[in-house]
Amino acid sequence: MNFHLHKTNKAISYFITIAVFSFLFFGVSVAQAAQFSLTSENKNIKVGDQFEVKVLLNAENDSINAMEGVLVFPQDAVVLKEIKSGNSIISFWSQAPKATGNKVDFSGVIPGGYAGRNGLVLSLIFEAKTENASVIELSKAVALINDGQGTQASVKIVNFRLVVSGKAVEPKIITDQKDDTDPPEEFSPAISRDETIFEGKNFLVFATQDKGSGIDYYEVCEGKRACVKAENLYLLENQNLDEEIIVYAVDKQGNKRMATLYPSKSTLWYAKPLYLAIIGVLLALITWRVWKKRHAY
């Protein structure tokens, strides 16, 4: 069965070569500032109250197509109840927002870029547990310009200053105003292969959005094998590419969207501009991290 992977490999290798060449020979340049702001509509917070903190991006006349950061919150003062990403300007999470201890890491891509103001990146629901004055802050924030070279924008950060005073008689509880019964958006998985990824083995690439509760996880089902949870780049168990592949996108309310890839009708990913853009920007993020480590001292 012919998937024309030779053409795929050439297209991807060319794109990767251009991306890496740009960084190695031109370095990481810095443009004008993009601003991240942590804000909340809750101004009078008491012990027991729940409140939402939004992370907003102001692109400052640039177009931002990738970002990453780490949110840090005081565990002795608040409890993280929920992370919401359903209405994010980020359409592809290379690292979906995930809490570890008192930190929330995230990293994502915006194909085509975002050039607006007050774009929602994600939001967090906290519950105040002690009277205190502290800060919920964004650290290690990175934003890349949508210029084809992975130019790093200088970043301004406005953190959220938390003041909890008094105990709530009737604590404010945040609930979703709208039930999410809609599945994630339609998407089309695609197969690719490149010597720099998964040791040259065939892999699956896919991405979609859910503007309600947000994507919770993906599942990949190859032939009659058991379905497994997967990331957006998934190394295929069946390297012969002779079985049907089903990918499920599941949102945080359990709604599912199914996409099926038939071997005889597979759409090659090198023909999908969206996936080229996503992989290219991910490469820019990775190369930027390597550059940063080398120049840390």
Automatic annotation (TrEMBL):
- Gene3D superfamilies named in the record: 2.60.40.680
Keywords, A to Z? Membrane, Signal, Transmembrane, Transmembrane helix
Q: Where are the transmembrane segments?
A: 274-291
Q: Please state the span of the N-terminal signal peptide per the UniProt entry.
A: 1-33
Q: Which InterPro entries match?
A: CBM2/CBM3_carb-bd_dom_sf
The keyword GTP-binding is annotated on this UniProt entry: no
Any one GO molecular function term: carbohydrate binding
Name of protein? Cohesin domain-containing protein
List the lineage, top down: Bacteria, Candidatus Magasanikiibacteriota
